[in-house]
Design brief:
- The structure is a single chain.
- The N and C termini lie far apart (about 60 Å).
- The chain is built from nine helices and six strands.
- The strands form three sheets. The chain has a two-stranded antiparallel ribbon with strand order 1-2. A two-stranded antiparallel ribbon has the order 3-4.
- It is mainly alpha-helical.
- The structure holds iron/sulfur cluster and zinc ion.
Length: about 200
């Protein structure tokens, strides 16, 4: 089977008329600019959640696999997930039914990141790039680990566990904007570089 094999599921234009993304949000919502920042991850998670409720998600996903788009969320799948399915489909010569099964399996295992959910639900965007925590608790337990709000924001934003205390340097009370946070390792590196300069 060739690398460019088309997946012949229903690609008739009328499925687009039933697309949820045409009604619910701006189209660029399905095109987060990156994968690391808190905003991008939250945006991708939100777009995927809308796709999961979309009545034409399977048509959209198979169409996007066929088109081999190199960006965007389609049919609840990001680029990496689409590449992975296409790779397996080409290598193992999937039938259309097997492709559909692979799409469903990816949907089923792509659970939302609970930290991203908490971050999205409990923060408010403010002027000057501040993002203010509006939750009442000072500690949240997720998958057996305790997090302060700043630790949640840091891990969502940087995709890694913080080392040492997470601090906001902007001075805005309760701000957890990722760009305004540093952990101990970042401060140590910054101070080390300043001392060496
Ligand atoms: S599955 Fe997602 S991207 Fe595709 S049509 Fe529906 S909402 Fe839009
Ligand atoms: Zn701030």
């Amino acid at each position: 089977m060739s690398e460019t094999r088309a997946i012949s599921t229903d690609h008739t234009p009328d499925w687009r008329a039933r697309a949820d993304c045409r009604r619910i949000a701006a189209p660029d919502w399905w095109f987060p600019k990156g994968t690391i920042g808190a905003k991008d991850r939250a945006q991708a998670a939100d777009a995927k959640a809308i796709c999961r409720e979309c009545p034409v998600a399977m048509q959209c996903a198979t169409w996007a696999l066929d088109q081999r788009h190199t960006d965007g969320i389609f049919g609840g799948l990001d680029v990496g997930q689409r590449r992975s399915i296409n790779r397996r489909a080409s290598k193992e010569q999937y039938t259309d039914a097997q492709v559909a099964d692979a799409i469903r399996a990816t949907w089923a295992t792509d659970t939302r990141d609970p930290l991203v959910d908490i971050y999205l639900n409990l923060t408010i965007q403010r002027d000057h790039g501040h993002v203010v925590w509006r939750g009442r608790k000072t500690s949240y337990t997720v998958a057996g680990r305790d997090f302060t709000p700043a630790q949640i924001a840091f891990e969502v934003g940087y995709g890694r566990e913080p080392q040492g205390h997470v601090k906001a340097h902007c001075g805005e009370p309760y701000c957890v904007a990722v760009e305004h946070l540093t952990d101990g390792a970042m401060r140590w590196r910054r101070d080390h570089l300043a001392a060496a300069a």
